[in-house]
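Retro notes (design track)

What went well: tokenization of the new backbones is finally stable.
What didn't: we kept losing track of which sequence belonged to which structure.
Fix going forward: every design gets posted as structure first, then sequence, in one message. First example under the new rule, 354 residues:
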């Protein structure tokens, strides 16, 4: 039997990494998350200052050596992540760290900058893995990533069926696994999530919810909401439907593949910290409508302020479609009470719970 080759694992903080390049370089991209109830040590809190607790939990886990990774890519897609990068650069950790900094507004100079950023990212991954990218590895990585994207499309179809054939919590778990596992293994797990084709769908529990706001590092909040009688059928945050997974580009060489990934980058709507509120509102309306949601809810962590900037535009855009928006802002470190308050507000269709 041929021994299984273990790829070096490169941790990813943020949602800007084109996974095809990491895979083609012979490494496994592993998106890191801190959890809704993960520990935050005093040193990590002091080093980051007033920042989203999710970043502080990631820093705590990194300082404790809890992530089994060989290197780390940090995306400049929020101020908290940028702070995390500079803290890691300034404090001894023994971990090789690379910053990926992508502009959002499309222009020729911006495209040239992103091309350079992707080339530098690829060089970093090659240096970590000790392998050199070629046309074959790019094509193989592209096929694997597209297979993963198709599996996620199948999951979305099961989830958005009426009645839904998959809980939101299970779907989010599948997304989180997709960002951490070998693509082939991720596909197997995703296709096992929810009801298989031809099986009997579970009875509909009632209100179909689209979730916006802060991203979710685990599915615990989803499970609490669904235990309260709701089904989360879609979301637009970047660890769920908004995750940049499944995208690949074709090309005979590295330059052409990077050109395709640059095009894909500028064609997506990014997170609240980097996209215009009007763009985020359009994404919320489109996704919620496609999923046949009955209500949209925003769940926003304390100190994750960017999603709050979207609320006014989202509320106006959703009202045009007859969709209510219920928001729970300033969610503290322990979200248990906030989830219960949100579930109660959903029943009453209250607009905002602070």
């Amino acid at each position: 039997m041929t021994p299984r080759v273990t790829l070096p694992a490169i941790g990813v903080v943020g949602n800007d990494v084109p996974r095809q390049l990491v895979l083609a370089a012979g490494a496994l991209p592993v998106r890191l998350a801190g959890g809704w109830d993960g520990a935050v040590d005093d040193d990590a809190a002091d080093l980051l200052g007033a920042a989203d607790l999710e970043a502080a939990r990631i820093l705590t886990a990194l300082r404790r050596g809890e992530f089994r990774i060989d290197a780390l890519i940090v995306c400049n897609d929020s101020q908290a992540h940028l702070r995390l990068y500079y803290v890691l650069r300034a404090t001894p950790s023994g971990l090789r760290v690379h910053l990926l900094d992508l502009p959002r507004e499309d222009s020729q100079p911006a495209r040239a900058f992103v091309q350079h950023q992707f080339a530098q990212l690829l060089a970093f991954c090659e240096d970590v893995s000790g392998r050199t990218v070629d046309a074959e590895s790019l094509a193989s990585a592209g096929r694997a990533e597209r297979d993963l994207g198709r599996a996620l499309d199948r999951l979305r179809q099961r989830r958005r069926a009426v009645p839904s054939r998959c809980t939101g919590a299970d779907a989010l778990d599948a997304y989180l696994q997709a960002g951490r596992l070998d693509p082939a293994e991720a596909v197997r797990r995703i296709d096992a999530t929810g009801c298989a084709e031809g099986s009997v769908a579970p009875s509909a529990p009632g209100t179909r919810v689209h979730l916006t706001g802060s991203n979710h590092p685990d599915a615990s909040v989803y499970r609490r909401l669904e235990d309260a009688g709701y089904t989360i059928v879609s979301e637009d945050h970047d660890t769920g439907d908004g995750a940049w997974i499944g995208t690949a580009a074709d090309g005979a060489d590295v330059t052409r593949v990077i050109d395709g990934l640059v095009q894909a980058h500028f064609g997506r709507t990014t997170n609240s910290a980097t996209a215009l509120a009007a763009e985020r509102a359009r994404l919320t309306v489109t996704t919620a409508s496609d999923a046949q949601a009955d209500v949209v809810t925003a769940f926003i962590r304390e100190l994750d302020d960017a999603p709050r900037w979207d609320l006014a535009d989202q509320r106006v855009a959703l009202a045009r479609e007859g969709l209510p928006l219920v928001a729970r802002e300033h969610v503290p470190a322990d979200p248990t009470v906030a989830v219960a308050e949100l579930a109660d507000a959903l029943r009453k269709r209250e607009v905002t719970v602070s």
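Added context from the reviewer: The CA atoms of residues 246 and 321 lie 30 Å apart.
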